[in-house]
Amino acid sequence: MKKFLTVTLYCVCTIILQAQTSQDLQKGYEKYGRLLYYINSHYVDTAHIHKLVEKAMVNTLRNLDPHSVYLSADDVKAANEPLEGNFEGIGVEFNILSDTLTVVSPITGGPSEMLGIKAGDRIITVDGKNIAGIGLKNTDVYKMLRGPKGTVVKLEIVRKGVTEVLTFHVTRDKIPIFSLDAAYEVQPGLVYVRLNRFSMTTLQEIKDAMAKLKKKPKKMILDLRDNAGGVLQASIDLANQFFDKGYLLVYNEGLHWPKTMEISTDEGFFKEGKLAVLIDEGSASASEIVAGAIQDWDRGTLIGRRSFGKGLVQQLLPLTDGSQIRLTVARYHTPTGRAIQRPYDAGHIEKYYDDLYKRYSNGEIYSKDSIHFPDSLKYYTLKDKRLVYGGGGIMPDVFMPLDTTYYSVYFSKMVRMGLLYQFVLHYMDENRAALKKRYERFADFDKKYEVGEALFEALLSYAEEHKLPRNNDDIAISAPEMKLILKAYIARNLWSTNEYFEIVNRRDKVFQKAVEILLTP
């Protein structure tokens, strides 16, 4: 009888609460609608109701949590492109060099590559309109070159070594946006994979890369550093590749979101090999789902620094004008039950993101001893019963401090000002053909090419010409790293980001630690 009365009372309370919530919602509609009516009917000046509503929506969502946001119709399109893994356009990576639109690289498989547009080409007109020397901005380029699939854009191009202006009629098409930065064999049987985001094409990109290696890897380094996340399902699909059937990968739940568990299937392509996952303070959301599953089941070794700590799940909800809200609907939990979302105060977004700066100021980036977790957030891994913590990102199994060996203020400024990258673009403009002829294969370039003193001096002079004064003490500290990055940028310009990471990883202590761990019997 008591049980019956308890259930009845619970049901009655639930109905009353729902009724009150519904009444509050109706009163809110009426109150805000009346406010807009009064402003439109009585305000002293012309009121832009649309702008007021837009601002009100932004401010309302700011007072919920740091990840619930309003997206205008234009924002929706821009935000969806990297997650969908493609956009529609002509397919070039570009840079505005000396106020001229310069092709850095045609995207593989895109319409520009098919027509023979090359790195170093300068686009001077689009559909007959001059675009050189007019103060062009990146947003202007997007508007001119992107467009619906099947539409045609006429380009006039100046190419070094060719006297006449070249004309191309490019038919826009779907252009892939790759989430895979690199996938290469470090040594026989050991593969390195780096992801910059999680999109709907991520898993297929990795599988394609594995197929190109033509042999199944025995050991893998999965680099998720600075990977801020993306499509939730993509992270689940990737985590699934590392487990046999029947393992809990992640579960989500919220007030209006029933508990949803994701269980591994039997389709994984790397279920047995040794695994190392690299994370840092830039690894968030979907990256933390993968890292959390691997750590909780003792499937691999996490190396690096504490991850960002985003454990909230967002759902895109459409509005009447094509805009959307990205609303937090649930929290996700790792297999042990850890909720790794960092604490936050509603309405204080700036304070929330300042946490990353605090990690530098309190020494966490440089020392594991500066990190403190409350005992109430203790958990134990599911296989080896190792101690792990929830409530503020994922702490790696092997902590690696930020490497400041080659850091200097001068080098930092050079990178922030974009001078090193801009210098490489100028250098490649003059030397691409000769380098391509001399180094047909990356292996030859990697083995034989060295950044000589003449080229290094040219970089320093270029920086000086662009208002970065020399600092000989700083240059002495950073010279080895500057030369390494210079060579890596040249390799990227000649081939791809794959070759860039092959070069820079050789001085990456986190990467080297992963290799050491995986090669230890």
Outline:
The chain has about 525 residues and is an alpha+beta fold. The chain is about 40% helix and about 20% strand.
Q: CATH topology of the largest domain, anyone?
A: 2-enoyl-CoA Hydratase, Chain A, domain 1
Shape: globular
CATH homologous superfamily annotation of the largest domain: 2-enoyl-CoA Hydratase, Chain A, domain 1
Radius of gyration: 27 Å
User: How many discrete structural domains?
Assistant: 4
Largest sheet: 6 strands, antiparallel
Distance between the termini: 64 Å
Write up this protein.
The protein is of the alpha+beta class. The chain has 4 domains: 29-62, no CATH class; 86-176, Roll (Pdz3 Domain), CATH 2.30.42; 180-399, Alpha-Beta Complex (2-enoyl-CoA Hydratase, Chain A, domain 1), CATH 3.90.226; 409-513, no CATH class. It has 17 helices and 21 strands. It has helices at 2-42, 49-62, 73-84, 111-115, 138-145, 202-213, 232-240, 286-296, 349-353, 355-361, 409-416, 419-438, 442-448, 453-465, 472-494, 497-504, 509-519, and strands at residues 69-71, 86-89, 92-97, 100-106, 122-126, 129-130, 152-158, 166-171, 173-176, 180-187, 190-195, 219-223, 248-254, 257-263, 274-279, 301-304, 312-318, 324-333, 378-380, 387-389, 398-399. The strands form 5 sheets. Strands 3, 4, 5, 6, 7 and 8 form a 6-stranded antiparallel β-sheet that branches. Helix 7 (232-240) runs parallel beside helix 8, helix 12 (419-438) packs across helix 15 and helix 15 runs antiparallel to helix 16 (497-504). The model is unreliable at 1-17 (pLDDT under 50).
